[in-house]
Specification:
3 strands, single chain, Arc Repressor Mutant, subunit A, mainly alpha, 8% strand, three-stranded antiparallel sheet, 8 helices
């Protein structure tokens, strides 16, 4: 192992000799050259982007918040287009069904919290899905206050029939991003969501 290290150091010294114009090379000048060499190989410093209103003091936090709101609206427009001419009333209808397919049956409170809705709005969505027979509810241990929500066969069929359009809509929202950019964005958004979810629980 040490022989490999010695060889690597010797190779570096050779590069230093070829690239340096020092008349009297010494350890100090070699160390400085070595430091400069490693700095060149490091990733470039993050370039701060320009944004509207930056010169007038608009903060990065303001830009991020505005972008998230705008992207949410763009996503809703895509989702509405995906469910046109279907039995879904709103994008929230199929999002609740997808939640039940992905995570299994759950009670109303859990389903509403999973989709980050206020209780009244979530109850309205669930009641609409019940009335259209896309989901059903059952009581647990005869406790009428604790009801489980299940997706029905009709709900699964409608969801399956709509999934191609739904997938296309979700892809349209992230269309310009590369795979690497999507992975990076997922990590950042997950960090934000986890933080706010933990605050909501406390």
């Amino acid at each position: 192992m040490y022989y490999d290290l010695i060889k690597e150091v010797v190779d570096l010294i050779e590069d230093y000799e070829n690239e340096s114009d020092h008349q009297n090379p010494n350890v100090e000048s070699f160390s400085q050259w070595l430091n400069d060499r490693f700095k060149k190989n490091e990733s470039p410093a993050l370039q701060e982007p320009e944004w509207l209103g930056k010169s007038k003091g608009r903060s990065a936090d303001s830009v991020i918040n505005t972008s998230l709101v705008h992207l949410s609206r763009y996503a809703k427009l895509q989702a509405k287009a995906a469910i046109a001419n279907t039995a879904f009333s709103t994008p929230d209808d199929f999002i609740y069904l997808i939640s039940l397919v992905a995570f299994g049956s759950m009670n109303k409170t859990a389903l509403i919290k999973l989709n980050v809705h206020e209780k009244s709005a979530g109850i309205q969505i669930i009641n609409r899905l019940i009335s259209t027979e896309l989901v059903e509810q059952t009581t647990i241990n005869s406790d009428k206050r604790n009801r489980m929500i299940h997706i029905t066969a009709k709900g699964r069929q409608l969801l399956n029939e709509s999934m191609e359009n739904i997938r296309a809509a979700t892809k349209n929202v992230t269309e310009p991003l590369s795979y690497e950019e999507k992975m990076e964005l997922i990590m950042l958004l997950t960090k934000l969501e986890d933080f706010h979810e933990s605050k909501a629980r406390s």
